[in-house]
Design brief:
The structure is a single chain. The strands form 2 sheets. Strands 8-1-2-11-10-9 form a 6-stranded mixed beta sheet. A 5-stranded mixed beta sheet has the order 3-6-7-5-4. The chain has 4 helices and 11 strands. It has a single domain, classed as OB fold (Dihydrolipoamide Acetyltransferase, E2P) (Beta Barrel), CATH 2.40.50. By secondary structure, the chain is α+β, with helices and mostly antiparallel strands.
């Protein structure tokens, strides 16, 4: 009798696992709420002075020393073609690990945000596809629109938004990837 009960219980639990909500860290940027999936976030640190690196794209504000590692810090507002983030006492740097170019593993990047809000569970059925028009962010940067408490939160596709390879401009520092330029110049 026990094997029958176990076999019947296993299929019932499988769909429930698939429907589990995903956790997102929500934050503010220019008065608008955004979110990043919690699984790519390594830590959140207080904003501190950055070391600027010459010839970097405008959205890379500089680098920080994170326990001996050089980490580029991206200003999301500048990445979205907005005015650079104004530094306040609530400004934070969210340390995120994103996929690097094929075969290169992952890259750690800091993301400047106005303020961190909270971690929310957003169920798959509460996520709408990105809008095809009207968003103030490139549609390929948006993973979806999460419905939270009667409002929408923009769920970012971090691998696209934080792609350092996409920031490379022809003729800049010999065409080296942005992360490699930042690390080389920081030493």
């Amino acid at each position: 009798m026990t094997p029958t009960t176990t076999a019947a219980a296993a299929p019932a639990s499988a769909p429930r696992v698939a429907a589990e909500p995903t956790q997102y860290l929500t934050f503010m940027l220019g008065g608008e709420p955004f979110a990043i999936g919690i699984l790519v976030i390594k830590e959140i640190i207080e904003y501190s002075a950055l070391t600027t690196v010459p010839m970097m794209p405008d959205c890379i504000r500089g680098v920080i020393n994170l326990r001996g590692a050089v980490v580029p810090v991206m200003d999301l507002a500048a990445r979205f073609a907005r005015a650079p983030t104004a530094i306040t006492r609530r400004t934070c740097i969210v340390i995120v690990e994103v996929r690097a170019a094929e075969g290169e593993g992952s890259q750690v990047v800091g993301v400047m945000v106005d303020a961190v809000n909270e971690v929310l569970d957003i169920a798959a059925q509460d996520i709408e596809p990105p809008p095809s028009f009207g968003a103030r962010v490139r549609s390929d940067f948006i993973h979806g629109m999460g419905k939270v408490r009667g409002s929408f939160v923009i769920l970012l596709d971090v691998d696209r938004v934080l792609s350092l390879e996409e920031l490379d401009l022809p003729g800049q520092a010999g065409g080296e990837p942005a992360a490699a330029r930042a690390e080389a110049l920081a030493h």
